[in-house]
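User: Hi! I'm working on a homework problem where we have to compare a predicted structure to a textbook description. Could you give me the structure for the chain below?
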Amino acid sequence: MRIAILGGGHGSYAAAADLTEQGHSVALWRRSAGLFGDLAEHGRLAVIDHAGRREITLDTVTGSLAEALGGAKLVLLFSPAFSQADMARAIAPHLADGQTLFLAPGTLGSVAMARWVRDAGCSADVVFAETGTLPYLARKRDAATIAITVRAKRLPTGVFPAIRTDDAMACIREAYPSVHPIEDALSGALMNAGPIIHPPLILMNAGPLEHFERWDIHNEGTQPSIRRVTDALDGERIRVREALGYKPYHYPLRDHYESDRWMYGDAHDRLVDSGDWREHIDLHQHRYMSEDVAYGLSLLVSVAREAGVSVPIANGLLEIGRAVCGGRFVYGERTLADCGLAGLSASGRDALLANGWTS
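Assistant: Happy to help. Predicted structure tokens:
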């Protein structure tokens, strides 16, 4: 299968290596093509995982969206949620009938991007989907080396519009057999683990993060008091899901630490042992703040408000994040209104999620 991977982050490089090794034809694109370095010339990407180190040659490494998207059946969008508006406008002229666009995670970007693509004049018959986390726990070691610590075992995925779920699942499963369908795109957005695990870890470790050059929030940064806050925050997410009628299994984050039932299976110890998450985190710029707090928590609070669910932990962490960032986040925030879902009746919301933008 021809797969376009749009983005230059850890997840994009992991997908490029992993899917090429599976036998797919992969086109890796990033906006700043100069950052590819030598990878743009020879296409060789080194991957390190449980099987050791080896080199994989990618089919296409490009700065051209037309080249990347041409002939692609599956399009992977692993870039941050705050880049989705620009990305939608950029890809709109190049999309073609029959393509599936997979966001991991999405922060309801599947709904928002579908609208932005349409508003940009694209009439191609495409479908969007989003899941709760990246398919990989991975970190780039250098410009042409990706270390994959864990591959996801379960990827709960919502599709927009939901009436196209079977089509989207059939396509995505060719690359990721671990996907399984859930109700719709909003259900998929409310499976996003980033806004649950990362805000307590960075905000309650703000002192060490600013003091030490490198700090592992998943190792010494994960203490019992922080875990209790994370569990309380996750409880709010689950209550919002229940209020909207979404069914379990809700992938409670405690299972990430305590069992093998979670999306990555029994992965926490391997994440810590890898050492790849001992890193420098700029509290103003890092994706944990700009995406997981500013976009993820903002969306959760917005959905909770519409659902009539009290979420004091989410609200409190969001306000602390705003204060840490001097009152506003660098890329703004995300709400249901941004995605065109605010103020709808329950039946109106469900109809839109099921059928997509019909006008």
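For your comparison, note the following. Residues 194-352 form a domain with the N-(1-d-carboxylethyl)-l-norvaline Dehydrogenase; domain 2 fold (CATH 1.10.1040.10). The chain has two domains: 2-189, 194-352. Good luck with the assignment!
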